[in-house]
Specification:
By secondary structure, the protein is mainly alpha-helical. The protein is built from 18 helices and no strands. The relative contact order is 0.09.
Amino acid sequence: MHRVYKYVLPEVEEELRKLRLRAEAIPDAELRGQALSSMSDKKFHCQGGGVYAAANLEYRHVLIPLIVALQTISDYLDNLCDRSTSLDADDFRLLHQSMLDAVNPEAELRDYYELRSERDDGGYLHHLVRTCQSRVAQLPSYSSVQAHVRELVALYGDLQVYKHIRKDLREERLLAWWEKHRGYYPHLQWNEFAAATGSTLGMFMLFLAAAEDGLSQEDAAGIRSIYFPHVCGLHILLDYLIDQEEDQLGGDLNFCNYYESQQLLVERIGTIVERAREDVKRLPASRFHRLIIEGLLALYLSDPKVSHQTEVKQVSRKLMKNSPITRLFFLVNSNWIRRQQT
């Protein structure tokens, strides 16, 4: 936490400050508004992702700009799709091609707005893509993780396409997509797999691993399987848990609504927590990753949204029952960081 407060949070803030200046100059009013709101409303995504740089301060000059840029693309595109003027799957697919290009240092830039009416962003999205490309090229072992990063980014893009198309088509497309993958994850329910694909944590962990010299292909594959699906699934299920009321009002799809009861929801998230804890034991710096898990629980379950939703508050209490001291520590820190931002 000393590293996070001294190095990570200030440097994440500086990266976001520079991106805000670019976003403020976007000519199209709609794109400008979505870019700025993605940074103000979802700033904690970049802060949380930046924590991975605390594990390798020597490479933070690469990891922090990379993580902030890729997370900002993710949040910006999520805003564009959530509040889209179209429901065109091809449009959403092309927008998310920017994330695939961002993690491929040799990819050519494209017109990612070609299929929508709002197109003039003054080069904002291209700048984010180029930032990612230049940073991944500086990671010593990126060639070992690149295929796994691309796989996770591709799954993320699939999810964003299927969850934002016409409401009457969403579940049908998501279930058909799940059929292609369920054989690899027979212990998961379809909504849990979909939730896991919505997390960027696996990508950030692979970036961190690639900052080490001599990472083997085998180790890279192992790291991917350790983070996906359980750590990634926990991350997004917690996010959906606290957004249930908000999503209901907005008519948005929420993966926590597909459990038969609140009791089953608690049981399934509890099971995924335990699987995630067991998975990270296989990593060399397992204590750091255990802290990530406890930090996720503390961050989301201490969110102010929880107090306004009776059922979510009950679920949170059950999940926090018998909390380990590390989670309580992060609970205090999460509340402190929030107070600094208000």
